[in-house]
Design brief:
Layout lengths: L3 E2 L7 E4 L8 E4 L2 E4 L9 E3 L8 E4 L2 E6 L8 E2 L4 E2 L24 E6 L5 E2 L3 E6 L5 H10 L10 E4 L10 H15 L4 E8 L7 H8 L7 E5 L6 H16 L5 E4 L4 E6 L10 H14 L3 E4 L9 H5 L5 H20 L10 H5 L5 H8 L8 E5 L9 E5 L5 H10 L4 E6 L11 E5 L2 H6 L6 E2 L9 H16 L5 H4 L15
Parallel strand pairs: 12-13, 12-14, 14-15, 17-18, 17-21, 18-20, 19-20, 21-22, 22-23
Antiparallel strand pairs: 1-2, 2-5, 3-4, 5-8, 6-7, 7-9, 10-11, 10-16
Helix pairs in contact: 1-4, 2-3, 2-10, 5-12
Amino acid sequence: MQDFIKINSSDNVAVALKPLASGTEVLLDGKTITLLEEIPQGHKFALTDLPAGSSVLKYGCAIGITKDSIAAGGWIHTHNLKTGLGDLLTYSYDKQEIEIVPTKERFFQGYRRPNGKVGVRNEIWIIPTVGCVNKIATAIERASQKHVTGTIDAVAAFPHPYGCSQMGDDQEYTRTILADLINHPNAGGVLVLGLGCENSNITELKRYIGDYDERRIKFLVAQESEDEISDSLELIDELAEYVKTFHREPISCSELIIGMKCGGSDGLSGITANPTVGAFSDLLVSKGGTTILTEVPEMFGAETLLMNRCQNEETFEKTVDLINDFKNYFTSHNQTIYENPSPGNKKGGISTLEDKSLGCVQKSGTYPVMDVLKYGESVQTKGLNLLSAPGNDLVASTALAASGAHIVLFTTGRGTPFACPVPTMKISTNTALSEKKSNWIDFNCGVLVEDTDMDTLKNHFFDFVVETASGKKVKSEEAGFHDMAIFKKGVTL
């Protein structure tokens, strides 16, 4: 295993790949540097003397400005590094000419729906229109597990606290996300469970759902039923009869839609797991498939890298709006735009938002940005898409599912057990995490700094995603976890 890594030839810092003791001699670029203090795993040390006010370069880009002078071999972190970012910026389009090189077609075993859409799971979903019926929904889920057999992969309820006492965008978000999930092809059948007096009642929600197959979607209003659980179970029985008629068949990976997200990041996120997901994204796009990158606040400081990869000026302008709209959201709530890394991020070696963002956008790979989606908007364009959603793990992952992602790839340096409405694959940045939390982690990218090269790892990872799309359960599915969360921006009545 390597002891440290200099990511880009222009960097003036290196990253410790394991804890390095004070006094350790590091040989790099023909120069020997003595570490002046202990450097934790994932943390940075200076490769040259840096006066106060110097730009610190990592990934070939500035990740902040030194607060004090730092000698070569010194530890660089939050105590002596500050963000170099400001607020709203004016951007110019410097288009990169990027050619997508097609690769050999691949297939997975998926479910073809009557409307032509494709699912990687054949599940029955119970969607409450309002939080008041959450417990009923979970009771129905528990009583319906007998149907999880044959080709029916799961019966899952998705409780949430919204659907009433909301105004403006929040109410629209709830209706849009619920409708997106109701229409998601991973659900072979859906029971929409309403209360009856809520703002986002079934009658209102049907306007967002659009045309639907009565065999696939059933509705029940609890206030109109003498025994809502008994009546719901009868509807679940009907749905199960329909859902079990679907069987897996070979489907081209060109129809696969994959969401990409990170959380609990550490100093290795931008070195191992995120670049592997980026390499996967390029490989899937080269086969005609689609990927979606979100968590907009974690693009701040790296947004120009994405903007210059936009396929055309229109997409560039949509990306500018994506970034500035989110900055305005922060400032409208009197929040600092650039104070983003969490305590866990900082402990893992991430010092500034630029540091976090430049590692985060590694998940996007190298191919062009083809489109930009609003929150709740369904993906329409193949290739790499950007999606408006916050950094919050559950909210962003749910947004990816709502936009059409069949699977969410979730990289993490610290670990998390959560799931979202679609299979949520946990990808560790370091081997120690994968060994300690083997009940959470599905795939380990820590081997990238041990004994595995990127070409080998990306192909192994692509195979693993295809296996998952073909029915292999991820750890959160094995645990029976299904979560969702909706973005809330405004007032609750």
